[in-house]
Amino acid sequence: MLSITHTALYVAFSLISLVTVASSMRHNSPIPPPTTSLTDRFPHLGFDAAFTYLFGGKNIKKINDGSCVSITLDNSSGCGFKSKEIYYYGFFSAAIKLPSDYSAGVVVAFYVSNSQVYPHNHDEIDFEFLGHEKRKDWALQTNIYGNGSTMTGREEKFYLWFDPTIDFHEYSIVWNQYHIVFLVDNIPVREVSHNEAMSRAYPSKPMSVYATIWDGSDWATHGGKKPVNYKVGPFVAWFKDLEMAGCAWNQTSPAASCSKRGSLSRDPVEGNEFMKLSEQQQRGMQWARSKFMFYSYCNDLKRFPVLPMECRGGKV
């Protein structure tokens, strides 16, 4: 019979082994292929043609004539860039490689927003990558705000089934009148339907596309317990294969400048694959959510004793 000390050591060793196996499984799990590759539908855009500096310009480097861009956080500044065009609905995608090694407190974001135009009533659709301690995983956080609904953070968090620091992986957003879909390597990980429950909080105004890296020491890793350690910096993220396909918004006109067969439309992406998820995409999303999602605001009764309307039997 094992002694108490030996039993405790055995249990501790078993837990460590389970964590190690779980981490290994995340990075070696088979990935169901999507029905179609949405990222193959749209052209890649060069930096100078489609983007402009947002802040920290000295920390933004263009490679291969702007087909690839690095953004750096160091002890002087983070940085970011934004699209020249403003879009009403569309498909937005980037292949991203994240900083390696210790990156606690670092936040890399790829998102669409109009906070600069509507500071008190803004919309936003976010991919946020939250830094990690050594030998820990990056966390992928998705979130949306509609019409200034910032008091209700609709966060969902995932681990990834690959190491996002070794190679580039595609992160894409579909936003139209039917739904918002977050995709990782063309596999949906989250769908937010434009239904009655979400009607007031559904992003509804034109938005720009952003990519940023910044210091999130006060919240990003373990609720702010692990701040950025600049002694192991700088922290560099890489972006390439940038895609934006949507209705470009003319700020001097109330109409979006896109059309279908001569008639104005607010939905720039055509076909059933943009209106609803296919059966295979739904299976892929179920696979991703069941294996890799570790937080959803719809399950956080401590934070929301009364769940948001869309969580009460609705589809999020």
From TrEMBL:
Purpose: Catalyzes xyloglucan endohydrolysis (XEH) and/or endotransglycosylation (XET). Cleaves and religates xyloglucan polymers, an essential constituent of the primary cell wall, and thereby participates in cell wall construction of growing tissues.
Annotated localization: Secreted, Cell wall; Secreted, Extracellular space, Apoplast
What name has this protein been given in UniProt? Xyloglucan endotransglucosylase/hydrolase
Q: Which organism is it from?
A: Zingiber officinale (Ginger)
How is this protein annotated for GO cellular component? Answer: apoplast
Class in the EC hierarchy, top level: transferase
Instruction: Return the CDD domains for the record.
Output: GH16_XET (cd02176)
Q: Domain named GH16: which ranges?
A: 24-239
